Amino acid sequence: ERPRVWVSQPLFDDVVARLGEHFDVVATARVTQHGPEAIAAALREADGALVTLNDPIGAAQVAGAGRLRAIANVGVGYNNLDLPALSAAGVLVTNTPDVLTETTADFGWALMMAAARRISEAEHWLREGHWRQWSFDSLLGGDVHGTTLGILGMGRIGQAIARRAAGFRMRVLYHNRSRLPEAVERETAASYVGFEELLTRADHLILVLPYSPQSHHLIDAAALARMQPHATLTNIARGGIVDEDALADALEHGRLAAAGLDVFEGEPALNPRLLALRNVVLTPHIASGSLATRRAMVALAVDNLIAALGYGPDAGRPPSPLNAAQLAERAGA
Ligand code: GLV
Ligand code: GLV
């Protein structure tokens, strides 16, 4: 009998079709907000699953999943998955790093520039028919070139953002849990500073760190109070890193010039205070969303699932495992 895999959301049919070479595929035909019970029920019948950031999976979802051996997450961030619980259940988990790095860095840059130069606000103004009221000081923004870029989280995406800053002649500061090797600092022309120094010195601050209990509301009222009033804040990481009410306060009172947000704490629900503000650019979690990259993410997740379940040329060695060491330790114990 062939293994059975569950595909939680419609992805690219032609890419996902490769699963059918090895497995019986149970695919979800429409975008679905699966409840916790529905996910548990789907996993009970599955040997493997291809899931997305919208599918939360923890101990309760895998408790009855006796056959489940692998979960391939389509996305680099995996805060939708309780990794310790899945490791304890013997489930190998994979994600999709690298393939989205440059595309996501491009978008972070686009959002930062849109916030600084008021691009969304200007377009609304134009579409609402205000051009005849144009004056020489209409819609003036802040410069990006020649300023100080602050990067919070210096993984692959943070480094790709730093490299782009060279053409804009920016000073690049970063903060990260651990300082990068000197060779990487030199190549990205980025200088390590403490968290508070990053906040106070950045003209444009961009968030690219993973979401965890440690990063929950890391950007709160106290952090925002340290930022310069002409600064911008861009978030392409996870919404929960920012206290949205504190951000709305800062933006409403001119204590921060503008924000660019691709991620939100309760997405797809939005904080109405942010929706009411002009000096915030809002996008629906599309930072990795170029066609080529979204296809590459699904292809990598498919490769991971095939290999994790013991098939294909890389059988047993998926390209991007997250908990292989934990599983090996558990098997040896
Ligand atoms: C998107 O947010 C991802 O983590 O891939
Ligand atoms: C995170 O893993 C990144 O690629 O920056």
Report on the structure:
By secondary structure, this protein is of the alpha/beta class. It has 2 domains: 4-98 and 291-332, Rossmann fold (3-Layer(aba) Sandwich); 101-282, Rossmann fold (3-Layer(aba) Sandwich), CATH 3.40.50.720. 35% of the residues lie in helices and 15% in strands. It has helices at residues 13-16, 36-44, 59-62, 83-88, 101-117, 119-127, 156-164, 182-188, 195-201, 221-226, 244-252, 272-275, 291-308, 324-332, and strands spanning 4-7, 24-27, 48-52, 70-74, 92-94, 148-152, 171-175, 190-192, 204-207, 232-235, 258-261, 280-282. The chain has a 7-stranded parallel beta sheet, sandwiched between helices. It has a 5-stranded parallel beta sheet with strand order 2-1-3-4-5. Helix 10 (221-226) links the parallel strand 9 (204-207) and strand 10 (232-235). Helix 5 (101-117) packs across helix 7. The mean pLDDT is 97. Bound molecules: glyoxylic acid (2 copies). One of its GO terms (cellular component) is cytosol. Residues 110-287 form the D-isomer specific 2-hydroxyacid dehydrogenase NAD-binding domain. This is NAD binding domain of 6-phosphogluconate dehydrogenase family protein. InterPro entries: D-isomer_2-hydroxyacid_DH, D-isomer_2_OHA_DH_cat_dom, D-isomer_DH_CS1, D-isomer_DH_NAD-bd, NAD(P)-bd_dom_sf. Residues 8-310 form the D-isomer specific 2-hydroxyacid dehydrogenase catalytic domain.
Brief account:
One of its GO terms (cellular component) is cytosol. This protein has 333 residues and is of the alpha/beta class.
